[in-house]
Design a protein that fits this description.
There is one protein chain. It is globular, with a radius of gyration of 22 Å. Helix 9 packs antiparallel against helix 13. By secondary structure, the protein is α/β, with parallel strands linked by helices. The protein contains 18 helices and ten strands. It has an eight-stranded parallel β-barrel with strand order 1-2-3-4-7-8-9-10, surrounded by five helices. It has a two-stranded antiparallel ribbon with strand order 5-6. About 1% of the residues have low confidence. The chain folds into two domains: 280 residues, Alpha-Beta Barrel (TIM Barrel), CATH 3.20.20; 104 residues, no CATH class. Helix content is 52%, strand content 11%.
Length: 434
């Protein structure tokens, strides 16, 4: 299986918005932008929402059939390890191997020595086409990189071979993820991580490094945009060089995790992709869930009451909900409105506080982040929450589709199309409803 040049991971906490998400890809295709949808859901999300990987496969297949999508699509076993991967084997054809927890733990001394012997000839001046300045390093630097990352890549190799033994070679897409580490990986480190991936025989089609800056859930990028732009472009060059040097899959590309709502870096990403004719996998996280909340609030009445209830209960359980996400949220609790104040909000008040519109002075990123991690509250509502999604689908689905298309696909991929077809009529009519 081969992943398309441009692809997007679309998480869907409750599995109700598959058609609305795929609609965004259909709109993009109508403009000449061909993006492969990848439905992703992690073991943690399944555990909280009480779903199974098979549910994601059913959702994806149903959306594809309903919209007569004739392009490729995938179901991602998101952030799996050896302890969790087996539950995903039958339903998934894309596996994100999360080995971040194994970084900073050294491999055996003999394995590190062997890695340095094999790749030590790259010490000195490392010339990478597309990077103007030379990258310099010593054999000691290579040893230090191996000490930090080799064990993690070896673990990725073990996970990959386990999946291959069950699904067969070439029957799934592999991504290696190291984005949840303590420090970002620079271009030199990425080069040797890719060397280790090749040594393990992993046919990785995407690699998810940790970038400079903060990729908080559901809000904009926090950091030096110029620095990120330089780093991102260098990584593209390193990947293209490593593909040739280490005989990695020719379609190997960068994957940006927690990539939803990172509006300030979408322009630089698109510019770099165009400059280097490179691909990208953009993995969104929770955006669909927040659009469900937006649609419920916009519905007023019962829908608004449910949205307010979710916020109130999430506010009361802040420490419990924030704990697992502590490294990817920045919430100032003093800027969270009290539940009593939210209870008095109109539909417009709630929607404008939640919707990620940086030009709106009523937008509250702290409010948005708390709701982002509050999906456990909705999960506990069970059938009552799902019934509300079905009842207000006509309001929710346009929010999901327009958010994904207008705020994500167009800013990242829109300028990469060989042609720019006019917007389709359905696109205009749906946007008019928001």
């Amino acid at each position: 299986m081969k992943l398309g040049k441009y692809s997007i991971g679309v998480g869907d906490r409750f599995g109700q918005q598959g058609k609305a998400q795929l609609d965004a890809m259909c709109w993009a295709a109508g403009r000449g932008i061909h993006i492969t949808p990848v439905w992703n859901k992690s073991y943690r999300e399944h555990s909280i929402v009480k779903t199974s990987p098979d549910d994601v496969r059913v959702e994806a297949d149903a959306a594809v059939q309903a919209l007569e999508w004739d392009g490729p699509y995938f179901v991602d076993a998101d952030h799996v390890g050896l302890q969790t991967v087996d539950a995903f084997i039958s339903a998934s054809d894309f596996f994100t191997l999360d080995v971040a927890d194994f970084t900073n733990n050294p491999a055996s001394g003999s394995d590190i020595d062997a890695f340095v012997r094999k790749h030590g000839h790259h010490a000195g001046r490392l010339a990478v086409p597309g990077i103007d300045e030379d990258l310099t390093l010593s054999e000691a630097d290579i040893r230090a990189i191996a000490g930090k990352y080799l064990l993690a890549v070896q673990e990725a190799g073990r996970i990959y071979r386990h999946i291959e033994s069950l699904k067969g070679k070439g029957h799934f897409v592999t991504e290696v993820s190291m984005d949840e580490t303590d420090q970002p990986q620079g271009p030199v480190e990425l080069f040797f991580i890719l060397a280790a991936i090749a040594d393990q025989g992993i046919p990785a089609q995407t690699i998810a490094p940790k970038f400079t800056g903060r990729f908080n859930k559901g809000v904009d990028y926090v950091g030096d945009v110029a620095q990120f732009s330089r780093e991102f472009e260098r990584d593209l060059c390193v990947i293209q060089h490593a593909v040739e040097v280490f005989d990695l899959p020719e379609n190997l590309k960068l994957s940006v995790h927690s990539g939803s709502d990172k509006f300030s870096i979408y322009g630089p990403i698109q510019k770099a992709l165009a400059k280097h004719n490179a691909g990208l996998h953009l993995k969104t996280a929770g955006t669909t869930w927040l659009e469900e909340m937006t649609g419920l609030a916009a519905a007023g009445g019962e829908g608004l009451a449910m949205a307010k209830e979710v916020y109130s209960r999430a506010f009361a359980r802040y420490d419990e909900l924030a704990g697992p996400y502590s490294t990817v949220i920045d919430i100032d609790r003093a800027k969270l409105p009290a539940p009593d104040a939210v209870d008095k909000c109109s539909s417009e008040d709630f929607v404008l506080a939640l919707r990620h519109d940086l030009s709106c002075d009523r937008y509250n990123k702290h409010f948005r982040q708390l709701l982002h991690i509050g999906y456990k509250v909705a999960a506990e509502m069970g059938a009552r929450y799902i019934a509300a999604l079905n009842r207000f689908e006509e309001l929710i689905a346009p929010n999901v589709t327009v958010n994904l298309f207008r705020r994500h696909l167009v800013p990242v991929f829109g300028g990469l199309s060989p042609r720019r077809a006019p917007s389709v009529e359905k696109e205009s009519s749906l946007q008019h409803t928001l």
